[in-house]
């Protein structure tokens, strides 16, 4: 059953645990958890979010995973974190300072976890967190914590000019760039 309005409001400022593993090819990084995700404890959990379908269509997972199955990701060499850890109803509620502090935290995390690629799902969040005003979707010249960076479009249903197929296409290009065959 979906969370109630009261459960969603109670999830404000909650933090969701990162999904990490010992040998990650890709660490996906969302902007921050929405209230729906925080209420359920699962990343990209809001119905209509295209992260999970795009992940599967890109060949990075062998089947379409539900958000509640996020714990399976490390077995596929994948993980998830967020630029800003606290949950909000909208990313617009976050300050530039929170994004910059999140960028520093993310650089420390990447240094510890050592994924092959950090994939940030949201170009505006990446620009703000890392001071890269002209960044565009795709591979970046700069590294974070010694790790290659790829910026993906935000998979939220609110980002309507990026279709599911285009988002999956960017994830597919990322997968191919590291030489991973489709699962």
UniProtKB/TrEMBL annotation:
Keyword Transferase: no
Keywords: DNA damage, DNA repair, Glycosidase, Hydrolase
Superkingdom: Bacteria
InterPro entries documented for this protein: MUG/TDG, Uracil-DNA_glycosylase-like, Uracil-DNA_glycosylase-like_sf
SMART domains cross-referenced by the UniProt entry: UDG, UreE_C
One example GO MF annotation: hydrolase activity, acting on glycosyl bonds
Domain Uracil-DNA glycosylase-like: 17-175
One Pfam family from the record: UDG
EC number, as in UniProt: 3.2.2.28
UniProt keyword annotation of Chloroplast present: no
Gene3D superfamilies: Uracil-DNA glycosylase-like domain (3.40.470.10)
Coiled coil: none
Name assigned to this protein: G/U mismatch-specific DNA glycosylase
Organism: Planomonospora corallina
């Amino acid at each position: 059953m979906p969370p109630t309005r009261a459960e969603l409001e109670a999830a404000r400022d909650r933090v969701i645990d990162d999904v990490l593993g010992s040998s990650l090819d890709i660490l996906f990084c969302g902007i921050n958890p929405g209230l729906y995700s925080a209420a359920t404890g699962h990343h990209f959990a809001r119905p209509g979010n295209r992260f999970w379908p795009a992940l599967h269509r890109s060949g990075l997972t062998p089947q379409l995973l539900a958000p509640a199955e996020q714990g399976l990701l490390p077995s596929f060499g994948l993980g998830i974190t967020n630029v800003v850890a606290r949950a909000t109803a909208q990313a617009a509620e976050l300050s530039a300072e929170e994004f910059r502090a999140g960028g520093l935290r993310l650089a420390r995390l990447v240094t510890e976890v050592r994924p092959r690629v950090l994939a940030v799902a949201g170009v505006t969040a990446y620009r703000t967190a890392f001071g890269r005003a002209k960044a565009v979707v795709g591979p970046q010249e700069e590294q974070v914590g010694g790790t290659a960076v790829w910026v993906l479009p935000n998979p939220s249903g609110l980002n309507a000019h990026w279709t599911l197929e285009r988002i999956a296409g960017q994830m597919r290009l990322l997968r191919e760039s590291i030489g991973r065959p489709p699962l």
